[in-house]
Amino acid sequence: MRLPFPTLPRERQLRLGLALLLGVLLFALAGPVMAPHAQDALVGQPYGAPSDTVWLGYDYLGRDVVSRLLHGGWTVLWMSLASALAALVVGAAIGILAGFAGRRTDQAIVWGTDVLLAFPDLILVLLVVSMLGREPGLIVLTVAIAFVPGVVRLARGVTMGVARLEFVEAARLLGYPATRILFREILPNIATPLLVHFGIMLTWAISMLAGLSFLGYGVAPPTADWGLMINENRAGLVLQPWAALAPVVLIGLFALGANLVAEGVSRLNARIGAATGGKTNAG
Amino acid sequence: MPAEFAIGPASAPLLRVEGLRVSLTGARADIVSDIGFTLRPGEIVGLVGESGSGKSTIAAALLGHARKGAVITGGRVILDDLDILSAEASALRDLRGARVAHVPQDPGAALNPMLRIGAHLDEVLDVHAPGMTPDQRVERVVAVMADVGLPPDPAFRQRFPHQLSGGQQQRVLLALAFLLRPRLVVLDEPTTALDVVTKAQVLETVRHLCRRQGAGALYVSHDLSVVRDLVDRLVVLYAGRVVETAASHTLFAEPRHPYTRGLLAAMPDIAVRRHLLAVPGHAAAPAARGEGCPFRSRCAVTTDRCLDLPPWQEQGRGHGVACHHPVSGSLAVAVEQTGPAAGTGGREPLLSVRGATARYGKQVVLSGVDLDLHAGECTALVGASGSGKTTLARAIMGLGEDVAGTLLLDGVAQGLREGLRGTAQRRRIQYIFQNPSRALNPRQKVGDILGAVARHFLPLDRGQTAACVAATLAKVALPASAADRFPAELSGGEQQRVAIARALICEPDLLICDEITSALDVSVQAAIVELLRGLQQEGLTLLFVTHDLALVRSIADRVVVLNAGAIVEQGAAGPLLDCPHHPYTRSLIAASGRAVAS
Description:
The complex is a heterodimer.
Chain A: H1 8-34, H2 65-101, H3 103-117, H4 121-132, H5 136-163, H6 166-173, H7 178-215, H8 226-233, H9 242-282
Helix pairs in contact in A: 1-2, 1-9, 2-3, 2-5, 2-7, 3-5, 4-5, 5-7, 6-7, 7-8, 7-9, 8-9
Chain B: E1 15-24, E2 30-39, E3 44-48, H1 55-61, E4 70-79, E5 82-83, H2 89-95, E6 100-103, H3 107-110, H4 117-128, H5 134-147, H6 154-157, H7 166-178, E7 184-188, H8 196-213, E8 216-221, H9 224-227, E9 233-238, E10 241-247, H10 248-253, H11 258-266, E11 312-314, E12 320-322, E13 351-360, E14 363-373, E15 378-382, H12 389-397, E16 403-409, E17 412-413, H13 423-428, E18 429-432, H14 436-439, H15 446-457, H16 462-475, H17 492-504, E19 510-514, H18 522-537, E20 541-546, H19 549-555, E21 558-563, E22 566-572, H20 573-578, H21 583-591
Helix pairs in contact in B: 7-8, 15-16
C-alpha cells in the first residue's frame, strides 16, 4: 500500500531538473536545423547590438550569436555525457570488484586510484591534450580517466557496506556465480549513490570541457562551441554582454538541471527507504 | 482513560501521566492516545508492548521530547508538581539528566567513541552541578561507579567506550543516569543487546539502584519475561493505548485483557514444554487503526460492542482493563510431554562434527568441538555471547574464516569453506539469519528471490518455478500475493517467513537457525516456532542456535551447551533443563529466571 505522503515539492524539484536537462539537450540537438545562419557566416557588425530580429546581437567578428548558440551546444553536451558515462561504467565495475573481493585485489585497486587521484584533473587533461592533440574522442577518454578514481572510491565504499549484509552471504552460500552476485544482488543496491554521483560528474565535465575550450585546447575555431564563445567574446563584455553571457547561462542551466536531478533522485530514494523502514517497524 | 489506582500505602505519586497524546506530524493519526498512569517513589513500572505500540514514544514524552516526525498534542506529564509538557525550554534543560534520566537501548551508539568514560561522567556534572568541588565530584563518581558494579579506580575512567564489553557499556549508561540521583529514571529496553547472563546482572543492578536511591523507574520492554521479576507494576500497551495495568504478579496470574492473555500464551516457559500460541494477525500502523477497540480485528471474543472504544474498567486492587469483555480466571496452557529425544542411539547421525577448532586472529573461538545431529531432531545450541555458538553454526555452513576439523554429512566429508562445496552439497544444508531485513535483497521481489533459488537447484521452466514458489509460500503460511511484494513491504515476521521459504524451496535436510526469533515480537516468535516444529515433524532436521532457554524448552529435543568454545554439557532437553549438572548450565538457567534445585 502506498501512503499518501506529501511528495509533490520534492518531485517538483526532480521535474524541474529533468525539464532543464531535456530543454538544453533539445536546444543543442535541434539547434543546427533551426539556426537562421551558418555558424561561421559574417552577417553583421562586430559586437553589433541586439535588435527585434537579431535577439542576442553579433559576436566579435559580426556573426549571429543565436545561430552560434544553436550550433555550439552539441559538442560540449555529448562530450560531457560520454565522459561521465564512461567514468561511471568503468569506475563502478572496478569499485564493486574491489569492495566485494577485498584483500589484495582491493589493496591493489585502492593504490591505483590513489596514484591517479594525486594528479589534479585539469592539469592531467591539459597535459594529455597538449601532448596528443585535441581529438574529441581523446578528450572524452582523458576526462573519463580523470573521473574514474572518484567513482571507484565511491563504488568501493558503498559495496563494502552492502557486501557484508546477510543476503549477499546467503547468495554465496547458495553457490550463485560471482557475476550474478555482483550485478544482481549488489549493483541494484548501490545504484542510487552512483546515479547521484553521475549527475555531479556531468556538471564537472561540462565545466571542464567548457574550460578547455576557453583555454583554446578544445574545439578549434571557427566552429561554434559554448566554451569557446565565452573566450572569444570576453573582450567585448561591456560592449555586447550577450555574446559571452548567453553560453554561460546555457551551461549554467544544464549544470543546474543535472544537479537538481541528481539531488532529486537521491532524496526520492532516501524517502522511499525511510517510508518502508517505518513500515517494517510498525508491522 | 485509565484512572488512578492505589495499592499499598497511599503515598503521593512521583509521576502522573494524564491523557497523553502524541501524533504524527502532518497526518491526522495518533501514535499514542489517552495514556495515563502513575508512578510512586521507589516504584518500578514496566511498560510493555509489541514493536510499533508506542512504548518508546511515551518514554521520550516523559522527558518532554518527541522524535522527529512526531509531536506531543495533548495531556499532562506531572513530575513533583511540574508539568513537563508545558515547561520552558530552560526548565526542561535543568530537568533532563538531573531529575529525569534516560537510559537508551543501544549503549554502543549512546556513548561518544571519542570520549573517555570519565569525560562522559564529568560532562553531566559540568552541566548540572557546576557548584561541586573537585573532591565532591570524585566522591560522587566513585560512589556511583561502585553502585553500578564498575571498578571505581581512576584507570577505568581513562578507558574509551570501545574498550568495554557490552554489559560494561550499559553499566556506564546506568552510572550516567543515576549520577545526579534523579527522581525518575526512564529505561528504554536497556538490556536488549545483552546476553542472558549479563542481562540478569544488569537488571539486578537497576533494581538495587532504584531501591537504594528511592527513584521511580519506568522500564520499557517488548519482552514480558524480562520485566517479570523486576517491576512492581505493569502497563500493557497495544496500538498506542493502555489495555491493562496491574501489579506484576496479578497480571501474570490473572490477565484480563484478551491481548495480555495472548501475549502470555505466546511466551515460552523454561519450566514446561508447550505449544506457543501466536496472536493471529498484526497490529495496524497509526494511520490505519480506525475506530473502536484497537484489538478487535485480532480478538477471539469480539462482538458489536467492540466497535465502540472500550471504557476503562477497574477490576479492584489496582487492576484495570480497557475491554468490553474482560476474561476472568487464570491462563490455562496445554503442557505437553517432552518429545522422543532419547531414542536415537545406534542410528547414524545426519551430520557429524569432529574436533572443530576455530580462531579469530590469535583468539581461540572453538576448541575441539564434537557435535552429532540426528535426522528429524531439533538440537538447540545454547550459550552466552562469545561462547562460539554462531561460529560453530557458520563453520558448518562453510562460512568460517580459520576453521579446522572434520565435517561429515551422511558419512561424506564436506569442504570446510563454502567455495569447496558442490551444488548438491549446498542444497542439503540451509542457513537462516538472525535479522530478516538484512537477509533479503531489498531490491528484489519475494517471488524473484525464491524463484532464483528454485531455478538454481532444479531444472524448472517459468510456470514450474511460479508453482514451486506458490507452494513454498503456502508452506510458510504466506499468501501467494506475497510473491509480488518487496521485502520492505512485509512485517518482520513475514520477512523471516520469506527467509525460511528461501531455505525450504530447495528441500534441504538440515536447517540451521541462528537466533532467528531474537529480532521478533513474542507473538511473532510463537508463530515462527510453531512453523519450525511443523516442518520438523515432516522430517526436517534443525540446529537451533539461541540464548533463550525458555524457547529451547518449547522447540528442542536435545540441547548442547557451549561455553568458551567447548561443549560443557549436552543431553535430552527436558532432563538437562530440569537438573543441569554443569555449573555453567546452572548459571544460564538461573539467569533465565528459574530457580535451580541443587
